[in-house]
Amino acid sequence: MNEKNTFLCACEQEELHLSGAVQSFGALILTEENGYITHVSVNTDAICTSAIPGQFIDPRLAKLSASLGVQVGSNKIVAWHDQGFNGYILMTKSKNKSIIYEFYPSDIKHNNVICTRFDFLEKPNSDSELSWLQKRLVDYISEATGFERVIYYQFMHNGDGEVIHESVSSSHIGSYIGLRFPASDIPRIARDLYVLNPWRYIYNAPDITTPVVGITPSAPDLTYASLRSVSPVHVVYMGNMGVNTSISFPVILHGELAALITCHHSTPHYIELPMLEDISSHVQHYSMMQSSYLTQKKINLLDGLGRWKADTRIKLFKMIDDTNQWAELAIWLMDSFSASGIMFCVNDNYWGYGTIPNEEAFAVLDDYFVHSKIQIWSEHALSKSFKSILLSPLAGVLGVTGMADAECHVRLLLFRNEHIESISWGGNPNKPTNSHDGAIGISPRISFEKWVEKTVGKSKVWSQKNQLQALKLRELLLEVERYVQQSGTI
Predict the structure, then answer these.
(1) Within a 10 A sphere around the Cβ of 98, how many other Cβ atoms?
(2) Distance between CA atoms of 389 and 358, rounded to whole angstroms?
(3) C-alpha torsion angle, residues 108, 113, 115, 121 (rounded to 10)
(4) Rounded CA gap, 428 and 241, in Å?
(5) CA 176 from chain center: how many Å?
(6) How confident is the model at residue 1 (pLDDT cuts 50, 70, 90)?
(7) Dihedral sign (CA 172, 276, 270, 53)
(8) Would you say residue 217 has pLDDT above 70?
(9) Spatial CA neighbour of 44 closest among 57, 20, 28, 21
(10) DSSP secondary structure letters along 105-159
């Protein structure tokens, strides 16, 4: 296993929710549903109130938490001024009906900015309108919080992320706009926690954490604790970026983490709980708007696919009845799939158009496709799997077949040329770790300077639309197989 995979594996295995500690600027009490205290952070006496595992929580707090929803993760913020504590309490329903009380003091020295109202327009009707709305939200959060940098970090299908929008307070801190970061920077276990929580606030990353003790020595489940301590690896990561305080708000689309809106500051920067809640509500509202837009976009796509299938059917059967119509069908399909070339096969009869493999190479590809029993074959890096044949300049294929074991076997293969792409990374993604003298052994890469990688031997990835078109095309190929068997044409 190489260094990159070793680092990612180590990150994935870290049980973040069982850290057994909280950030020291706040305090935590964990109780059962009836108010029986099971765990406390050891600083509760110094910050908020006296709380001892094995006793019952203040009845006033128990009464306030009674209004929490039954759903795990539901929360409520209340102002609390008592026994020298001045601030807010975040109450959250946790697993097994337990309740987390988190105390956020208001007497920390900070420059908290008053949160102004952000009024959303109607949901976007195009990708450009969606992008404009994302940038507007980023700018609003930057102005409202006073953070030095706010970014919109969008996840890709493979777990990598890219900064697509940014607001910075001054040019001297540089820009991350357009930079891509590897999946190891935010491993799956961390992404799962983002889905479950409205925000992740790290006030002072290098600060010493406060242990949580309980009636048993086992660490409590802090999945839904906002004050949960920071992973030692992430502390080093933030330090390497020159970041002391960070807040991340998840953008959840159809139950999946699609993006993070993340705030960075080089010095401790305190934000009150009501502001966190207010901004979180804006991000959640935006997420619903984007989900609605994407749903409508998919409906429009499916409607368009119905019309596209009808038009394709006409051209396809014209060609079956008269092979002189092949060029018209080929150009139509190549344009539909943004392909460089196309091969159409009915049993042992072949028609080609555009940039296609040589006869020997195509025989290898077709033989693989036929015997693989794959109905839709999508690949954008052919040279990795078929090193023994000459494919250049082709790099990608989208194959569609009817019934491989039918008396008449119809298949269609679309090809794409190599697409050389320059990817700008935030540091070298192939060297994500550096030696570290501390107890954690390894730490994230030190440099986040722009590092450009040129990808070769790959085509553009076949889009979701292309995959849906391929499904429709397969339905047509099944029709063709039945028609050819009955009519004896071709």
Answers:
(1) 19
(2) 9
(3) -140
(4) 14
(5) 18
(6) very low
(7) negative
(8) yes
(9) 28
(10) ES-S---PPPPPP----SPPSSHHHHHHHHHHHHHHHHHHH--SEEEEEEEPTTS
Partnered with residue 169 across adjacent β-strands are none
Tokens (6 digits) for 482: 């039945």
Measured in degrees and rounded to the nearest 5, phi and psi for residue 315 equal -70, -40
Q: Which of 58, 54, 83, 95 is nearest to 213 (CA)?
A: 54
Token pair 């940038």 is at which residue? 135
pLDDT tens by residue, 277-321: 999 999 999 999 999 999 999 999 999 999 999 999 999 999 999
Nearest Cα neighbor of 77 from 92, 87, 89 is 89
Q: Which residues pair with 453 in a beta bridge?
A: 423
Pairing, β 245-253 against β 442-444: unpaired
SS3 206: coil
Task: Give the integer Cα–Cα distance in Å for 330 and 352.
Answer: 8
Burial per residue of 311-326, b for 16 or more beta-carbon CB atoms within 10 angstroms, e otherwise: ebbebbbebbeebeeb
Cis check for the bond before 393: say yes or no (omega within 30 of 0). yes
Q: How many CB atoms lie under 10 A from the CB of residue 75?
A: 19
- Give pairs for 253-259: CB < 8 Å, separation 24+: 253/287, 253/290, 253/291, 253/294, 254/291, 254/294, 255/195, 256/195, 257/155, 257/191, 257/194, 257/195, 258/154, 258/155, 258/287, 258/290, 259/152, 259/153, 259/154, 259/155
What is the identity of the amino acid at 474? Answer: R
Q: State both tokens at 422.
A: 């320059």
